[in-house]
Design a protein that fits this description.
Layout (H helix, E strand, L loop, with lengths): L7 H17 L4 H36 L4
Helix pairs in contact: 1-2
């Protein structure tokens, strides 16, 4: 079964869970590495979404004659 794509808020929640798990130190090396990789992928995805949102807001603001 394919993973469902998380929206921004769900991604942040998942990232928080990953951080909690990693900080606990209860997982083995292999699981820790997989979680770290997943966390990095989520961060990259969220950064792209935020940049896209910022660009959209800039365009909207420019259309209205405002600045961010």
């Amino acid at each position: 079964m394919a993973k469902r794509k998380l929206d921004f808020e769900e991604s942040i929640e998942r990232l928080e869970k990953i951080v909690d798990i990693l900080e606990s130190g209860d997982e083995g090396l292999e699981k820790t590495m997989l979680l770290y990789q997943e966390g990095n992928e989520i961060v990259d995805k969220c950064e792209k979404e935020l940049e896209t949102a910022k660009l959209k807001l800039t365009i909207i603001s420019e259309d209205k004659g405002a600045t961010l």
